[in-house]
Each structure stands twice: as structure tokens, then as C-alpha cells.
Amino acid sequence: MEFKQLQKSFQLNNWSIRYKLILHFLLISILPSLVIGLLMGWIVNGIVEKQVNGHTMQLIDNVNKSLDYYAGNIQNISYFIAMNPEIQAFLNEGEAAIDDDREEYRMSKFLQSFTTLYSEVAGIIVVRPNGDYFSNEMYARTNESLTKETWYQEAVGAKGIFKIIGHPSNRNVTTHSNYKDSEVVSVVRAIQDPDTQKTLGVVLIDLKLRVIAETVRDVRLGKSGYLMVINDKGESIYAPRNSKIGSLDVALLDQQPSGMFAQTVGNQKLQFIYQKSSFTNWTTVGVFAVQDSVQEIKDINLYLVTFVFIVCMLGIAASYYLSHSISRPISQLASFMRKVEEGNMSIRIPEEREDEIGLLGRSFNKMLSQMTRLISQVWSEQRLKREAELRSLQAHIQPHFLYNTLDTIQWLARKDGAKEATEMVEALSKLFRIGLSKGQEIIPLTDEIEHIQSYLKIQQTRYKDKLNYQIEVDGSCDDLFVLKLILQPLVENAIYHGIKERRGPGMIAIKAVISEEMLELIIQDDGVGMTETRLSALRDVLEAVPDISDTNVTQRAAADRSPNQATSYGLRNVQERIRLSYGETYGITIGSVEKSGTTVTIKHPIIRKGQSAHDTQMEGTNRG
Q1: Segment 235-286, tens digit of pLDDT
Q2: For 342-351, where are the alpha helices, taking DSSP H only?
Q3: Residues near 458 by Cβ (< 8 Å), separated by ≥ 6?
Q4: Residue of 491, 501, 503, 484 whose CA lies nearest to 458
Q5: For residues 413 and 144, what is the distance between their CA atoms, to the nearest angstrom?
Q6: CA 453 to CA 431: how far, in whole Å?
Q7: Does residue 285 contact residue 227 with C-beta atoms inside 8 Å?
Q8: What's the pTM value of the predicted model, to 2 decimals?
Q9: 607 near 442, Cβ under 8 Å?
Q10: What's the rounded Cα separation, in Å, for the pair 254 and 251?
């Protein structure tokens, strides 16, 4: 039982509209914010990492280009030196070529010009195969031949190709400036005879490491990152003072010209991004702590989390506010409805709002007003119905007694041979018999015509030659049914207010035809007619029928029964019966010309045997 109650409480349809709105607003505000935040975090982290790596690689590429530029200058210097005539003479002839002071001075100035123009050049020395050498700033430490030096042998082995040796180590060459081995990088090139490919000598040039340091040291990677340059053996060419890396595993660098990898050095995990120069065979490596990159991502994630948190708080506040602003008037409307349900029909919702709730409130107020009016109308109808039932009961008691009495009189008159009296009584008897119709409200049209014939026969006996009548019924109307006693009041008006008032005999013509899917009963007389004022007033009376919602309907009905309203009472009675039964589509229309006569047309629905009055009323309502 408790499980079912718990399950029921979790069903969305059982929630109040306020909580549904809160859930809805939370879903459309917080959930997308969380998804967007996570997605943005993932995307931004990837973008930041790519940008950092791309930026680092771009810096490394710029450093490599600078180093290649300086190395290219040194290479060009070696070419210029090899092609100089004095140097060529020295290589071919030895010291004999520089016995002249002017020649020695010229060669010295020539070499000195390079150190002057290119500040990165620390010194230049040219060595012949026999050990003789010439330099402006460099000299041998001992008398041992320089041709035994490793750098000399590497230059010869390169066969004229420019080669970067790296830091000098235990060599027999120094300079007047006395640079440390760690402060310079040596490059060599063998000068060969173009015809015999014989080595004529070797040029050694020292490149100041200060140039590399100036190129690299201004580059900063993150908070603690830096750049370093290593040779093809993994040995450091340049590294800043805060570097904790002496050498790197060449196998990791030789896999591809550029790339990145992570390695733990000491207790710190470092990220390495490198690019190798194809010209110098040096590799520029960017080194930075992984924690620095992670910290940047953490900062971005913190901003995103803060943003999502603020959005969520605003979403929750907005959800509560919006749900309250929407659900509160609905709850008030429900409260008003409960009061109406308890029987308070006088309550009304304030019509201050202009939104859908306000529209619903105004419709609710109109509905209450309509319900109040309909309740009053039903009460009035019930009262009128009770009055009509009482009048009907009284009307049925008297005709029954008269009908039986007339039968007795007719039998006595026929027995005594009073033919005219017998016909008169027989007509009157038929009149009452059809009027009773066993209590039925709808009778065949033929009975209604027979009823009006009996009535006219009685009236003709009274008025003799002054009254003539004619009845025409279309054959298509023989099987139709009509409300009973709708012709007699109209014919009576035609006699008393039309034929009786004229001079000479008068004619009443009655027709029954089907026109425009309606039964039309036409009563036409050639009596005195009516004035336009009286005709307009009579039409207004007929158009106002029925208006049962009017609280003065009983008083108006009583006034219609007064002698002054005798003309309209019969018409109004028939109009009221037809419209109450079949709707406002049907009823009476009147046309009259003063001193020429009056025409009254009854528009009645077509009712055949087996068709109920309710069905006919619905057809009339739909048609209207």
C-alpha cells in the first residue's frame, strides 16, 4: 500500500502545476547550462592545449630559423675564406706566401673583417695539412700539430661539407679573449682542390654561444617553462641556468622531426615539445611542467564552474518566480471555482489581468452570469409550465363535458328532424373532438384542416352570406403532422378584425403548400387590413416571442389577455408555441395593406409519421 502511494506521488500527472512548472523551468535552464558547461570545458581544454602546443611549436620554429640564419652566415664565411686568393696562396705555398708583411697584414685584416661584421664570430683559424696555421685571434696552446685534433679530422672526413662540431673539448686551440669551451660552438669545413679533391686545409670558426642565448632566453613557456638546444647526440648546446636536464634520450627525438612527449625528471613531470633543424642537426626543445598547463585548464574550468553555478542559481530563482507568477492566479481561479461548487453563484473573479488567465477569468464570470440567467429562466419556465398545465387541465375538463353534452343534443335534434341544428351541433362536436385529440400536441394536418372546416362552418352559419371561405391543400401535404389548433386563432382574427369590419361579403382563403423545405400554411382575407403603425407594432410583438428570460413574462402574458390586446393574443400564442417547439427559424409572418386585406403565413417544419418533435427541433436549430 505504501509502495503504491509512493509510486503515485512520483507520477507527473499527480503533481501540482507549480511543481510541474518548476521542474520544466529547471530542465530548460539548468540542464542545458550543465551540458553546455561540460561541453565548453571539454572543447576549451582541447583548444587551450592545442593553442599552447601550437604557440610553443611556433616559438621553437622561430628559434630554429634564427639559429639556421646564424649557422648559414658562418657557412658563408667559410666559403668566402676558402675562395680568398691570399688564403689559397697560403694553403698552396705555406708560410712562404705570407713572408711579406703586407700580405700577412692583408690576410689578417681579411679575417678580422668577419669578426667585425659578425659579432657572433669568436675567432677564425686556417690550418694546412702540414700543421701550419694562420689566424687573427686564435693560436695553438702547444707545439703539437693541429692536424691531430679531432675537429680537424672530422672536417677532413666531411670532405668539404660544412659541419658543426659543438662545444670544443680539450682542444689545442685558444683565443686571445680566452673563451670557455661552454661559451662557444665550433664549426669546421675542409678546403679541397676542385680538380683532385685533395684537402688543402681546414677552416675552424668559433661561434659565440651568446648569440644562441640571446635568441632563446627571451622565450618564456608558461610560468616556469624554457627552451634549450641540444645536438644530435642529445648533449646540451644551450640550456638556461634553471634547467635541470643535462641530456635527453636521442631515441625519443629521432622518431620524427618534431613532436612532443612527457617524461618525469626527478619528482616532476615535464612536457617536452621539440623540433629538429635539418641544417644544423640541432634540436630546439621546449620544456615546461605539466602542472603549468593543467593549472591553466583548472583556471578555465573554475571560471566555467562559476559561470554554470551562477546560471543555475539564476535559473532556480527564475523558475520559482515564474512558476509562482503562473500557478498563483490558476490556484486563485481554482479557489473561486470551489466556492461556486459550494453554491456561491454571486462570486466574481477580478478582471484586472490581460493575459490568458485574465481571459479565462472573464470567461468564467460570463459563464457564471449565463448560468445565473439560465437558472432564473428555468425557474420561470417551470412556473409557466405549471400554470399552463393548470390551464390545460381546466380547458380539458370543460370540453369533455361540452363534447358529451353536444353528442346528446345532436342525437335529440336528429330524432326531432332539426337538420340545420344537427349539422351545427355536429360541426361543434367535431371542433371539440379534434381540439381534445386525446391529449396529443401534434396531430395530422388533415385533422387540423377538418377542425378549421368545422369552425368555419359554424361561423358561416352565423354570418350567412357575409362569410365565404376556400381551403386548398397540396397533395404532398396529406401525410404531414402539425401542432394542433394553430389555424383557428388566425382564422378567428381574420373573421373578427377583417371580414366583420368590411362592407359586403368577405373571403378567407386557406392554403397548405411545401416551400423551401418548410410547410407553409397561408390564411388570406380581403378584410379591412391594418395601418402601417399597427402592422409594425404587431410584428414587434411576434418577434419578441419567446423571451422567457424576461422576469415580467407573466405580467406581459396577463396583459395580452386584456381586451385591448385581443388581436395579438391569438397570434402571440401560436407564435410562442411554434418557436418554443421548433426554434426561431419557424413561426408567423404577417403582411397587410389597409382596406385591401391581410395575409398571415405560418412556417412550420415538415413532420412525417414516426419523426419526433425533438428531432424536428434539432433540425430547425441547425438550420437557424
Answers
A1: 777 777 767 676 666 666 666 778 877 777 777 777 788 888 888 888 888 8
A2: none
A3: 424, 427, 428, 431
A4: 491
A5: 184
A6: 9
A7: yes
A8: 0.45
A9: yes
A10: 5
pLDDT tens-digit series, residues 360-374: 888 888 888 888 888
Q: What per-residue confidence (pLDDT) applies to 563?
A: 36
Q: CA 592: distance to chain centroid?
A: 66
Pick from 55, 54, 125, 132: which is nearest to 91 by CA?
132
Contact 151, 165 (CB under 8 A): yes
What contacts 410, CB < 8 A, 6 or more positions away? 422, 425, 426, 429
Instruction: Count other C-beta atoms under 10 Å from residue 458's C-beta.
Output: 17
Burial class (CB in 10 A: 0-12, 13-18, 19+), 326: middle
Measured CA to CA in angstroms, residue 117 lies from 68, 79, 107, 121, 179 at distances of: 18, 16, 16, 9, 19
383-427 per-position pLDDT tens digit: 776 665 555 544 544 454 455 556 666 666 666 666 666 666 666
Quick one: cell of 432? 371539440
Residue 261: strand pairing partners: 272
Query: Of residues 495 and 569, which shows the higher confidence score?
Result: 495
33 Cβ contact partners less than 8 Å away, ≥ 6 residues apart: 308, 311, 312, 315
Which triple of cell numbers denotes residue 358? 485574465
Cα(529)–Cα(461) distance, integer angstroms: 24
**Which strands form 506-515's sheet, in the order they lie side by side?**
467-473, 506-515, 518-525, 597-604, 587-593
Using left for φ > 0, alpha for ψ between -120 and 50, and beta otherwise, residue 439 falls in left
Q: Residue 181 is placed in which grid cell? A: 669551451
For residues 164 and 282, the answer to whether their CB atoms sit within 8 Å is yes
Which residue has 362592407 as its cell numbers? 503
Sorted by sequence, the CB contacts under 8 Å of residue 460 that are 6+ apart come out as 467, 468, 469
Q: Which SS3 state, helix, strand or coil, does residue 96 take?
A: helix
Place of cell 478582471: 351
Q: Which residues pair with 470 in a beta bridge?
A: 509
Helix axes 532-543, 566-582, angle to 10 degrees: 30
* Number of other residues whose CB lies within 10 A of the CB of residue 529: 21
Report the DSSP pairing between strands 587-593 and 597-604: antiparallel
